[in-house]
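Hey,
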Amino acid sequence: MLTLEETWKKLIEIGIVHGDMPKVNWNLSGANLSGVYLNEADLFGAILSGANLSGVYLNDADLSEANLSEADISGAFLIGSNLIGANLNKAKLYKANLSGIYLGKSKLTGADVREADLSEADLFKTDLSKADLSGANLSGANLTKANLCGANLSESNLSGARLNGANLSGADLTGATLSGAFLIETNLSGANIKEANFSDADLQGAILRGANLSGANIKEANLSDADLSGAILSGNGLGAENQ
């Protein structure tokens, strides 16, 4: 990991900043860091709102508590980086490589995370409400107690993901893969789960009230103590609707 001084020097070298290093709250809002190599940089608490970080290399960097709201991070590489407590509301992370990233307790409300790689990422208690994660790879990710209310997860890969206690109410999981996923006491009320694959998934105590599971593969899933009242179950061998 680079020190603060080394990170500031790098930013000077690429013409992003000038002068002496501020002691706190580096303001880099609107900065153009597209394609820049900043692996292992220390950007703790930096203000990068609205910045252009498309294609940037920030692998193993420290961006915890940074403000990246509305930043363009599409196609960027942040493998193994620390973004715990960061603000990524409405950020664009389209096709970004975020595998193994630490995003616990971060905010990604309304973020564009389409087709991003979040495999093995830590998203504990992360706010992803209304985020677009369609086609994203979340295999093996930790989404325990995450807020995914109203999120778009259609065609996403959540195989082996941990979603225990997560809020997926009203989410779109059409065609998603959740094989071997853990959804113990997860809230899926009103969710659209058509054609999703829940083979070998653990849905003990899950709330599926009013969810649309038509055509979903749930035959091998553990549904003990799950609430399926009002759920649409046509096309999967469990009846047209659970009354």
